[in-house]
Amino acid sequence: MTQHDPDFEAFLTISAVLTGYSVAELQGTGCAPEYWTQFQQVLSDDVCASFLAGAAELSCQDSDKVVRDFFLSDPCHGPVARALVQLWYLGQWSPLPQDWTDMYGASRFDTARILSSRAYKEGLVWDAIGAHPMGAKQQGFGAWALEPPAGRAGS
Hints:
This protein is mainly alpha-helical.
């Protein structure tokens, strides 16, 4: 179970900072446990622990610097962070680069795939662009006549 699991909470904290959505919004997708499982299956225990340790770093004043230095620029954490952002936004796992897997280990779960129909429907991209997942969540009759929503820029 993921409730009250400090590693799962760290995963959500990092995901929130990387995506720009709150932990509550991420949990509201219903995909967090599925994404957590995928994350754990792809990474070795050591890489997973090292990545999750970054959650403690985020409590400092300059979380942007932590994101840049600890997550995105780091040769180990960078590809993982980018794959995690893509997972939340698109509902799909994008395989880690070959040079990364050569250095940190490969996993049979590290394959390009949409995790589930729910993951596709709940991808953050739809909210971010003020649209709906094609073929999955229709806007309703006459929606085409309404102005698009303002979006998240002011949030």
